[in-house]
Design brief:
The structure is a homodimer. Chain A is an alpha+beta fold. Chain A is built from 4 helices and 5 strands; from the N terminus they run ααααβββββ. Chain A is globular and about 50 Å long. Chain A binds chain B through residues 72, 74-77, 80, 92, 94-95, 101, 103, 105, 107, 110-111, 113-114, 117, 119-135, 138, and chain B through 72, 74-77, 80, 92, 94-95, 101, 103, 105, 107, 110-111, 113-114, 117, 119-135, 138. Chain B binds a DNA duplex through residues 12, 15-22, 37-39, 51-56, 58-60, 62, 78-80.
Chain lengths: 138, 138
DNA sequence: TGTTTATAAGTAATTTTTCTCATTTTACCC
DNA sequence: GGGTAAAATGAGAAAAATTACTTATAAACA
């Protein structure tokens, strides 16, 4: 979870430029635990920069993803969500309202690939999706 | 994992009709561990029934999903995959070739939602996605 | 301040999935 | 086996999400 200032430095170090639109995306992501979709980010930016395009949002998110600064979540079957928390963690998704909640518990000591697959696969990580419903939805 | 004959019965019991296209989809899914996408199923059916449409594929898969006979996997960020194995299990996905492998190990005794969330969420299940690369890809 | 170069905006294209509706097929009853 | 109601198919178009392309603009830095 980097601050907008830190993201600015990281991009500058990679020869990229910081525009007001990008800076606003950084600020939207900072400390954001709501797992916004590209569209939600787009709408927020659009309030301040009415001419912003989806291209800018997607391009910036792609850049951040490639730099490892956001994770692209595919937990919602309808659309991607973006998570600035790049530390390993897990999610609970409400099947009804689709809200996504962070689960920061560390399960790594319990979860291992079966021995029979150790030779065939190199595991870089794992992610647990909990499914169910939240209080407000049932 | 139902056979094509069993799926036929299930649909008939729900007042649905069995067409040659549907039967072929059932057979494609039977004992299928390759997690096909809608397009892959479409292509196979098209070889036998050249006029088949995507509508038919998606409609049939939707029906099977609603009956609980296939699971829709959102593990691949590009498209959905369909899994006739409806028993709880997990997956390893190769980041390079996107191939999906079943992990049938039962982790349920190790994986619990933190106590602090027990009152706010009803968990119906969980799914683990292992990420990494397969032997052929690295 | 000027120059270089990446980026933004706008538009169009792609990809995946869904919808509409006319036509065809299935299941079933006789 | 033929007739009939209900359901499914197929063809095309549409929707929704995402990506690509082109040109004008704006950021970075000398």
């Amino acid at each position: 979870m980097e601050t907008a200032e830190q993201l600015t430095k990281v991009l500058r170090n990679h020869g990229m430029k910081i525009t007001p639109q990008r800076l606003m995306i950084f600020k939207i992501l900072e400390n954001n635990e709501s797992h916004p979709s590209a569209e939600e980010i787009y709408k927020k930016v659009k309030k301040i920069y009415p001419t912003v395009s989806f291209t800018t949002i997607y391009k910036t998110l792609e850049t951040l993803r490639d730099l490892g600064e956001v994770k692209e979540l595919t937990i919602d079957e309808d659309r991607k969500h973006y998570d600035p928390n790049t530390k390993t963690h897990h999610h609970m998704i409400c099947s009804t309202c689709k809200k996504i909640l962070d689960i920061s518990e560390d399960f790594s000591s319990h979860i291992k690939l079966p021995d029979s697959l150790k030779n065939d696969y190199t595991v870089s990580g794992f992610h647990i999706s909990f499914y169910g419903t939240c209080k407000g939805c049932n």
